[in-house]
Write a structure and sequence with these properties.
6-stranded antiparallel β-sheet
Amino acid sequence: MVLNAKIVGLVDKGIVCEKNDDRLLVEKTIIDSGVYSTVLSTPFHCAVCDGVGGESRGDEAAEFVLRQLINEEVNNIDSDAKMSCVLSQINNKLLDYQKREQSDGMKTTIVGLGIYEDKVIIYNAGDSRLYRLRNDNFVQLSENHSVAQEMIMMGLITDNIEEELMKCSRITRCLGTKTSAIPYVKQINMHALKDDIYLLCSDGLWGAVVNDDITRILKSEKSLEEKVQLLFEMAENNGSSDNISIAIIEIE
């Protein structure tokens, strides 16, 4: 069954950063600034990369990885095993690129979503996130790759302070490294449902806007363009100190 979806995305350097290390991929289009809107039919693919903060060439890493996804004809990667293999190959290519450029300051997080007629494939490395709103149930589909998450899993800290720690915790996985680039990949063997809403974002959004506010905006009757703008404005008003990337996908 072919599914249709409307997608609206936004990328902005934010009010603090001088440089934008975020990139958004929608099909074969990479967005580095501004608002982008389109309607797609399955299969289609979206991803967000956030060049690792503090690295001088994080923007190049983000751009490089997304261009490699385009080159791989990502819509044909229709299993979690294939996606894991492709991401590993892309990481190796990024490491080779670092050597050629004599710069190890090219690392990036990634979160991606592939929607097919009969399945959904999700993946991430780092702290860029993917959420889904279905029948009023808002859930995070991506994993948290951070020191705080490891401490939670070991029982060293409690869940009620988890989100605050996530905002300032060092990430434990990203592309552009030899030892910590293994992404989380999951295949959901069920097609997306009508009215499902997926949200991909960098930490510039989720680090400044709480889940309840995100859910309220996504559940509103406003257009996707308005929802993206409201989330962006709320992140800035709440003092987001990072680049901000937002992509909302609504299954029609």
